[in-house]
Amino acid sequence: MIGVLIMNYGSPKSIDGLTSYFTHIMHGHEPSEEMIHEAKLRYIELGVADPLGSVTKRQASAIQSVLSKNTNEQLKVYIGCKHSEPFVEDAVEQMVADGVKYIITLPLTTFYSKTGVGLYEKKVDKKLADLQINIPVLNVKNWHLDSNIIDCFTNRVHTAHTWLSKDVKNDCIVIFTAHSQPGKPETHLTYTTQFEELATSIARNVSLDWRIAYRSAGPQPQLWIGPDVQDVIKEVANEGKQSIIMCDLLSVTENAEVYFDAGVFSQKTANELGIEFLRTPFLNDSYDFISAICDVVESKMHSNSTFNNLLKNFTSINN
């Protein structure tokens, strides 16, 4: 059986689980009551259960359905998280228990970072080593320039631009965002390069003015990659732009952090400066994204020699 491991940051299962969730994020240090109170208020304002968990489950179900049909193989999709159950290590252990003979890792995040995709992959390798299990692993990554993925984002920017009122449509700018990273840009070259490559590809398709910006930076005095999205909004306001389309390129799955940092807070700033604001929707479990990401997985599978050998074995057994 082939096991596909979807990996993400993680999310609380209940609003009562915020303390344990943030304690894990903070490496065992329990957050202050003030921090938990503020986080709880945000989740209440969100008005739904944390969408990252629920949408990821739907993505997993959809990906399993499409890949099983397209590859004609026994295949199961698992979910592994960095900061909440099921953790990546737990998912790997379950895959082994289920008899998975081949693992495909699929981080549902667009760009590579050492603390994101890189760490997920290391967790998989370490758990297999701890279990003393030798299972071939195919890491599906660096899919940000897949033409169908680019089309997914392009279509959403086009839809947003069409929606804008005629009074501001011709003086519009697209701000592409991604989570900031700690330290200097040169320490995250793969991440920043992939971000700029995807933004450039989408901008070429939509033919609109555009900028890149980083969101969700941590507190000072830690240095974080910029420019910050709030500063960019103020800059384009000073330039006389009348409308902004905000498009986050890192998070394909809806989550509270992007909802507030690239949505609510950015819209508040833009509106205060007299700028009309629109945010593109998340790709989530939409048909075009699920089709696109499954095509990426299938392409990686068929271009991998180890998988092709296993594919032949699976086919002969099934026949």
Provide structural commentary.
By secondary structure, this protein is α/β, with parallel strands linked by helices. It has two domains: 2-141 and 287-318, Rossmann fold (3-Layer(aba) Sandwich); 147-279, Rossmann fold (3-Layer(aba) Sandwich), CATH 3.40.50. It is 51% helix and 15% strand. The strands form two sheets. Strands 2-1-3-4 form a four-stranded parallel sheet, with helices on both faces. Strands 6-5-7-8 form a four-stranded parallel sheet, with helices on both faces. The longest helix is centred in the N-terminal third of the chain and has 21 residues, at 51-71. It is globular. The model has no long low-confidence stretch (mean pLDDT 94). Belongs to the ferrochelatase family. This is Ferrochelatase. GO terms for molecular function: ferrochelatase activity.
